[in-house]
Amino acid sequence: MDSKIIEFINWAKRNNWSIIEKKEKNLCLKTDITSRYKVIPSEYVELLKRIKQMIAPNEKAWFICEDEYNDKSEIVFKWNEFELISLEAAKDDDEWKSEIISWWNEKLPIFLSVNDGYSFYAIDLSNNKGSIVKGYEPEFEETEEVASSFEEFLELIMLNKIKI
């Protein structure tokens, strides 16, 4: 998998993505993240160990990296921004809020976009599946599977079959 991550980083550089690579290849996510998402696929962890920031050329889409998960980023959107929007929409409906939180407990957001409205990609952690799903506003919790794995997701981006 290391080679797919390196291939993707090199592709992104050639395609004018704004990339800041880490000097040290380590990862330290805050407890809120590691307790909520107990099993993060190793392929995505490998990207997080290598990249501090990765923003698409139009600056309207980006991978969520360690600083975003640890709330140390200058990016205005929080890593769980769309969950927060859904919870705000639920207002005082505790049952609806509980459903939203349960849903997001099984979907780890990995990529956010503000192109043509809000959308995201997430790793589906239900049933240890690891597929990549895409969600859109206004119903963020209604998603479609776009790739069977993180590696396939990167490949589809490089092949321009997933438009970023």
Write a brief structural summary:
Helices cover 38% and strands 21% of the residues. The chain is of the alpha+beta class and 164 residues long.
Q: How large a portion of the residues is in β-strands, by DSSP E? A: 15-25%
Gap between N and C termini, in Å? 22 Å
Averaged pLDDT: 95
Our Rg estimate from Cα atoms comes to 15 Å
If helices are DSSP runs of H or I spanning 4 or more residues, what is the number of helices? 7
Main sheet overview: 5 strands, antiparallel
Strand order of the largest sheet: 3-4-5-6-7
What structural class results from the helix and strand content? alpha+beta
| E-strand count | 7
Name the helix and strand elements from N-terminus to C-terminus, one letter apiece: HEHHEEHHHEEEEH
Main attributes of the structure:
7 helices, 5-stranded antiparallel sheet, 164 residues, single chain, alpha+beta, two-stranded antiparallel ribbon
Itemize the secondary structure elements and their pairings.
Blueprint: H1 2-14, E1 18-21, H2 31-36, H3 42-50, E2 51-55, E3 61-63, H4 66-69, H5 81-90, H6 94-105, E4 107-113, E5 119-124, E6 132-136, E7 143-147, H7 150-158
Antiparallel strand pairs: 1-2, 3-4, 4-5, 5-6, 6-7
Helix pairs in contact: 1-7, 5-6
Write up what this structure looks like.
The chain is α+β, with helices and mostly antiparallel strands. It is 38% helix and 21% strand. The chain has seven helices and seven strands; from the N terminus they run αβααββαααββββα. The strands form two sheets. Strands 3-4-5-6-7 form a five-stranded antiparallel sheet. α1 runs parallel beside α7 and α5 (81-90) runs antiparallel to α6. The model has no long low-confidence stretch (mean pLDDT 95).
